[in-house]
Specification:
Blueprint: E1 5-16, E2 19-30, E3 34-38, H1 45-52, E4 60-65, E5 68-69, H2 75-81, E6 83-86, H3 98-111, H4 118-123, H5 126-138, H6 154-166, E7 172-176, H7 184-199, E8 203-207, H8 211-217, E9 220-225, E10 228-233, H9 235-240, H10 242-247
Helix pairs in contact: 3-5, 3-6
């Protein structure tokens, strides 16, 4: 195991109805780095993230976070340890305002399980409000903080979910296709935001189809194909790898 690895996916295997989704996955994520995972549809990328956050148990192997085996823990327990995830489909509170959406996870991170009167508690919590407003400022959402989350564009909903993760101050941020469905303008805005986060040293794992996003952000890239890691290296090394060009980029060009 790499000495400064914050996450180690150790010899993980997972099958569904006899079909191998993940096979002998050994993946190490270095602290403070942005590690991209790419591959064609059906390669096992989202399954891998689901194993990491406790949504799917592996058939074999283990996931180790900061030296602690987290395999078998519930998703909320893994989140409390410092792993946050942005999903492909934004998981937000549609009936709450943008500001309330960000205050809820900040409150839960500080005080534990949510109470039934959470909204009244939020209204009176100045510290949580100030922290949430700062995160929204960082993600260019402050001017919309009192709008209902349901009224947001898809790009803004993705940024809102990112804000809900960042307010928890995670050690590791997992992003499952953070720019999926976005316009090029929204994609470029999201890249700029993630580059600002990168400068703060937060460890990130990004699953992404858009190579412009990958090569703008990643320090290291792992390539999945048919449930196996077929290549790993810097973006330049991966881009030049003939096996990657054949399996993912459509042949050498």
């Amino acid at each position: 195991m790499i000495g400064n690895a914050v996450l180690h996916v150790a010899d993980v295997q997972k099958s569904f109805a006899g079909l191998k989704a993940l096979s002998d996955i050994d993946l190490q994520i270095e602290e403070g780095k942005t590690h991209a995972i790419i591959g064609p549809n059906g390669a096992g990328k989202s399954t891998l993230l689901n194993v990491c956050v406790g949504r799917i148990p592996p058939d074999e192997g283990a996931v180790v976070f900061k030296g602690q085996v987290i395999t078998g823990k519930k998703p909320y327990e893994i989140n409390q340890l410092g792993i946050a995830r942005v999903f492909q489909t934004p998981e937000i509170f549609q009936d709450l305002t943008i500001l309330q959406n960000v205050m809820v996870p900040a409150y839960a991170k500080r005080d534990g399980p949510l109470r039934l009167n959470i909204l009244s508690a939020l209204d009176s919590d100045t510290d949580i409000r100030l922290e949430a407003e700062q995160v929204l400022e960082d993600l260019d959402l402050a001017d919309k903080r009192h709008a209902d989350a349901s009224a947001l564009s898809r790009g803004d909903k993705r940024r809102l979910e990112l804000a809900m993760c960042l307010v928890q101050h995670p050690s590791l941020l997992l992003l499952d296709e953070p720019t999926a469905g976005m316009s090029r303008l929204d994609t470029n805005r999201t890249i700029e935001i993630l580059q600002r986060i990168k400068q703060r040293g937060m460890t990130k794992v990004i699953i992404e189809h858009d190579m412009h996003v990958v090569f703008s952000l990643a320090d290291k890239v792992s390539v999945l194909a048919q449930g196996k890691i077929i290549a790993e290296g810097t973006p330049e090394e991966v881009r030049a790898n003939p096996a990657v060009q054949e399996a993912y980029l459509g042949g050498a060009h």
